[in-house]
């Protein structure tokens, strides 16, 4: 149980933009930069209303080991700092900046000094780079393994298995030199001897390009992954590139693998070369409501509305907007929502694709479990959730669900299984927090009683 490498589903790839180089959109009229676009603690604003900022000015500094700084993506004036609701459903403080139309670069921008492991990790921390494949985990934290002898191989995640999305594909085609430079930095400072680039078979141009770039580098292998979704899930790409299984509850580094998204590694190389922190993203704009799909280079913090307007999408055709692709994307009702550091696609759906089919009773076909790449008994989560049975959810290991959407996609009864899984995971987290709290209180009480007894004696 809980193995990976099996399951998955055949999804329509719809990689309509794979052959289209990214276009740069004009500077937006304003940006809204949330202080939390990453997993971990929000950054702390270091600017105030009426301050003038330039492209690359630090506007919020990281506040702990798992945090990431935020930089201005345009030049202009800070108008306010206010709480917003992000596409992820959380309320966070955000810095509002009105453009001056100049896109003046901050004069402090210069390449960081990097000469060893510690200065490399620190540079990645200062770059503001987080997992750009969608994960949003601060990259410096992931790379800071301390003992680099634990790393047996670097796995470059270039699977890009979600339908429509091609921003990583364009990185491999347009920025292959940055990918190469990024890998060389990892080899040098993280002492990496073996690199595997995993690319799904539906990207023949990217596979050819990477093979050509690394033709004379014996340390780098390009592996063609099967065109079965979800090849990009971390544990699955490790299994399918190295043959190793990451046990439940363990991290990739516990089996000697370090995984990094291909666009993330290219962004690190650019930062080390130029000193310009993460201020823009390549975003695939596609979906059934989009007649002219594109890859667009967008300043982070630009509203979805402004991006959609740049892509000439008819507002009457829009029925649903997703941050991400149709399998794992998160729907936003707010067209003013800003593009985040980890946004790699905006999927705009027309009426047919946006309409949820009516769910019917489970017919116990077991397809959800058969196709689950994490080998979970998906159909059992709903029953446990309805009974409010967190212990059963713990036994079923709902926490291992990677929310890939294969179960919902394959279910003939059209049951909203991913939603149920997310709610079940939240229920389990709340239960585990409560259990920890009860255990801590019990321990404190026992310690107090022991101290009292000792005093008496
Ligand atoms: S969403 Fe979770 S339960 Fe469903 S197939 Fe993916 S990993 Fe399995
Ligand atoms: S795929 Fe759907 S109908 Fe089949 S067992 Fe799973 S939940 Fe039930």
Tag the structure with descriptive keywords.
single chain; 457 residues; Rossmann fold; binds iron/sulfur cluster
Give the oligomeric state of the chains in this entry, treating copies of one chain as homo and distinct chains as hetero: single chain
**Mind describing the biggest β-sheet?**
6 strands, mixed
Distance between the termini: 53 Å
What is the helix fraction of residues, given as a range? 25-40%
Mean pLDDT: 94
Sequence of strands across the biggest β-sheet? 1-14-13-17-15-16
Q: What is the CATH homologous superfamily assignment of the domain at 117-274?
A: NADH-ubiquinone oxidoreductase 51kDa subunit
Judging from the principal axes of the Cα atoms, what is the shape? globular
Give the CATH level 1 class of the domain at 117-274: Alpha Beta
Beta-strand percentage?
15-25%
Query: Given the helix and strand composition, which structural class is it?
Result: alpha/beta
The CATH topology of the domain at 117-274 is Rossmann fold
Number of strands: 17
Nearest-angstrom radius of gyration?
Answer: 23 Å
User: What CATH architecture label of the domain at 117-274 applies?
Assistant: 3-Layer(aba) Sandwich
Unreliable stretches: 1-5
Give the ligands present: iron/sulfur cluster
Number of helices: 14
Describe this structure in words.
- With 457 residues, this protein is α/β, with parallel strands linked by helices.
- Among the domains are: 117-274, NADH-ubiquinone oxidoreductase 51kDa subunit (Rossmann fold); 367-433, no CATH class.
- The protein is built from 14 helices and 17 strands.
- It has helices spanning 117-127, 139-143, 167-174, 176-189, 204-213, 234-242, 262-274, 304-310, 351-354, 367-370, 379-386, 390-395, 406-410, 417-456, and strands spanning 23-24, 30-34, 44-45, 52-53, 58-61, 70-71, 76-85, 91-99, 153-158, 195-200, 220-225, 257-261, 280-286, 294-299, 320-323, 330-332, 345-349.
- Strands 1-14-13-17-15-16 form a six-stranded mixed beta sheet. It has a four-stranded antiparallel beta sheet with strand order 2-8-7-4, with no helix packed on it. A four-stranded parallel beta sheet has the order 11-10-9-12, with helices on both faces.
- Helix 3 (167-174) runs parallel beside helix 5, helix 4 (176-189) crosses helix 7 (262-274) and helix 11 (379-386) packs across helix 14 (417-456).
- The longest helix is centred in the C-terminal third of the chain and has 40 residues, at 417-456.
- Bound molecules: iron/sulfur cluster (2 copies).
- One iron/sulfur cluster is lined by residues 372-374, 376, 378, 401-407, 417-418, 421.
